[in-house]
């Protein structure tokens, strides 16, 4: 069986949380099979954690590759949907024919496919509700674990036209976006429909009362000292993933002088990305937002910001232990812990849990737990 037309969904999320992105659709289906990339070797279009699901009528959402092996994975998911028996399959480059099933980029990947279950639905619901959870499932004698975490936050200060564009592209990248400004006439939900929340408050006061973590990004767009200096002073005192500020080079130099007067140390000032954005040559709010988003992505993944055509290094960064890249592990530090589940007080599924995947118990989400941490016999 081949898919018809793939379902389309607005936006996408950062690469560590595809299952959360699929959760609302999966929970609306009465049955489904979901395929997850559990290992990647060499160059591959999608990293560990990428997921694709097949619904009761053959509809498909998500992706596990750039299209190279989607049809075969779809067929495998249909088999699992019919049989209920989990499956594990490997796909790699084929030298026999360009039309053979394989990854033309030269890499290989393993895909685990599982059928829906009450415990999987419970985990998906918890993830959809913003609760950090870990899941565990088994396929062909191997056990895999994966952590599903809340989306990282993007705090945008300054209710200007640029903020609307930044909020839209930030949401597209999978951030939970908040726009904050002290002026109620400008900070309205109608002006920022893409933002998850719009807050009327002084930026520094809101940030001081808001929980952040090492995955949080702050973008200051006001370029007005009475707003900028207090909020940047607060932001640069925190271990955030990204702190950027809009403005000219002259504004940047004046801003640095004022921040020094406020006692911000040089090592903190070195973290300030100002003028924010990569040099793309654009001028409009939308083009500026793309520039800012490009820098966000480059910082998040350790990219150079240079054209790929000018580089000879691998396109995709090498993943470290169990398919988790170092920047991702750093982003996960400080994220909320998984909530305890009945019978899992020691963090290990108890014998009363006959189905997988399982919500793991108390303690923090395993920071190197990705699908791809295979245990047991091969």
From TrEMBL:
Transmembrane spans: none
Domain of life: Bacteria
One Pfam family matching this protein: XdhC_CoxI
Protein name stated in the entry: Xanthine dehydrogenase accessory factor
Region described as Disordered: spans on this chain: 320-352
InterPro entries linked: MoCofactor_Util/Proc, XdhC_CoxI, XdhC_Rossmann_dom
Signal peptide residues on this chain, from the entry's feature table: none
XdhC- CoxI domain span: 31-92
Occurrences of domain XdhC Rossmann (ranges): 154-296
């Amino acid at each position: 069986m081949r898919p018809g037309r793939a379902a389309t969904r607005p936006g996408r999320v950062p690469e560590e949380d595809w299952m959360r992105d699929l959760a609302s659709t999966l929970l609306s289906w009465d049955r489904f099979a979901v395929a997850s990339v559990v290992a990647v070797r060499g160059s591959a279009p999608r990293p560990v954690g990428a997921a694709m699901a097949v619904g009761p009528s053959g509809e498909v959402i998500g992706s596990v590759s750039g299209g190279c092996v989607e049809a075969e994975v779809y067929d495998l998911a249909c088999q699992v949907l019919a049989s209920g028996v989990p499956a594990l399959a490997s796909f790699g480059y084929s030298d026999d024919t360009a039309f053979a099933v394989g990854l033309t980029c030269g890499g290989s990947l393993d895909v685990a496919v599982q059928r829906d279950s009450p415990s999987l639905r419970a985990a998906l619901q918890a993830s959809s509700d913003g609760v950090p959870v870990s899941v565990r499932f088994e396929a062909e004698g191997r056990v895999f674990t994966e952590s599903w975490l809340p989306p990282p936050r993007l705090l945008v200060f300054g209710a200007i036209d640029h903020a609307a564009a930044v909020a839209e592209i930030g949401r597209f990248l999978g951030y939970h976006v908040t726009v904050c400004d002290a002026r109620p006439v400008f900070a309205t939900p109608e002006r920022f429909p893409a933002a998850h929340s719009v807050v009327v408050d002084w930026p520094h006061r809101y940030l001081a009362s808001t929980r952040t973590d090492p995955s949080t990004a702050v973008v200051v767009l006001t370029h007005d000292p009475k707003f900028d200096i207090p909020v940047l002073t607060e932001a640069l005192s925190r271990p955030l993933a990204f702190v950027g500020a809009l403005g000219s080079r002259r504004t940047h130099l004046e801003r640095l002088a004022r921040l020094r007067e406020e006692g911000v140390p040089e090592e903190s000032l070195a973290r300030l990305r100002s003028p924010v954005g990569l040099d793309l040559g654009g001028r409009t709010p939308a083009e500026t937002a793309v520039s800012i988003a490009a820098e966000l992505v480059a910082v998040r993944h350790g990219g150079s910001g240079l054209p790929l055509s000018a580089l000879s290094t691998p396109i995709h960064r090498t993943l470290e232990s169990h398919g988790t890249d170092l920047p991702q592990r750093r982003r996960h530090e400080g994220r909320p812990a998984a909530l305890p589940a009945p019978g899992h007080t020691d963090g290990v599924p108890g014998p009363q849990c006959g189905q997988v995947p399982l919500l793991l118990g108390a303690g923090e989400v395993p920071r190197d737990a990705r699908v791809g941490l295979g245990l047991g016999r091969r």
